[in-house]
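Two proteins were folded this term; both appear here.
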Amino acid sequence: MPSPEKPTKPAVSLKERQREERARLILEAAQTILLERGYHETSIDDIAGQVGIAKGTVYLHFPSKEDLMIALVEGQLQNFVQVIEEVAASTSSARERLEAILRRTYDPSEARRMQIFLEVFGSADMRSRFAEKHERTQPIIDHARNLLRAIIEQGKAQGEFDQHISTKVMIVMYLNLLSPRNYHHLTTDQTVAFEELLPQIIQIFFHGISRKQA
């Protein structure tokens, strides 16, 4: 008996591809201007001008500046979760995978992502609007938690981590280390070099602050 044919995905129309490309260009322009001028000095007029489209065209994709900023943050969240997915899929030990995610988080090359979060969430209005859009971003965050939960549970099963410590507690503590609002002061503090910062964070998370035994 011949195997059933796999359903084919409907072809994306030229109009839809153009729409997707325009939305991508708008987000890129918004990111560039946001990083150059800050949230309050970023305007839809400037974004439209940089893309070379009418202001009204921007609103066809994003009803407001706030919606555009939320989409920008969502994109950064999704990109970071992809990093976690890649690390989670590796064959390294649980601890090595958690350390790898911390390295990617604190690496100076990730400063742009951190700045986007800080610029957007520096506005009280944006924090409120983002909370209203909770249902859009929560699945992304939940996915990240589930990936971390799987790594930690593997670490417990393999004897790397203390089974008496709640996995939920470990996840919450670890996620705090990944929050830009929590760690940006450390990365911008010139008194602590990156080469010194990361080993200290890893030491505290995996071993606590007790003095190492000689």
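Next, the second protein.
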Amino acid sequence: MPRPKTHDDLLRAKLLDRAGALLADEGAKGLSLRRLASEVGTSTTAVYSLFGSKPALLAKLCAEGFRAIGDRLREVRLTGDAVTDLVHLGTAYRDTALAQRNLYVLMFAGGDSTSPGTAAEVREELQLVLEPLREAARSGVAAGVFGDVPDDVIASSVWAYAHGMVCFELHRTLPSGFEYPRAYEQGLRATVRGWCR
């Protein structure tokens, strides 16, 4: 009779869920594999068996974070007005990023051995985040709203604005007079209109 599989998808989901909660509550310093295992009622061996290492667990969490943003952007109903659509997408990006603020900071962390930024799954999910922006940009180029510019360039500029402003907001590095979300949306709209003919 085969032994029951204890390190299964249900345990993986519980570990990811609790790891995400620890990140949300306490940031990366609050997440240790020993604590995670204890809080889920399993062993660190199980965590290593399912994820391989803490960097691999963090990479999986980051992929999930990008997936959440991509899913939210794909839910945005496009109107056919490329400028409005890109502003709505940029606003949805900000809202989703702020809803997972500690994970968002980790998603773009770099320069150390625990950085998950090079994981293939993370890169793949990031490309899926950009696709709704590309789609709206392509629509605008095809309709003659934007100049003859590659859709990737327009999409990347919108993403760069959204990401940069989210980082400023998360690190509280904007002047106190800067009003969210109105000023954010105004800047986003100006960024998009900069590509118009």
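The chain is about 70% helix and 0% strand. Residues 111-118 have pLDDT under 50 and may be disordered. These notes refer to the second protein only.
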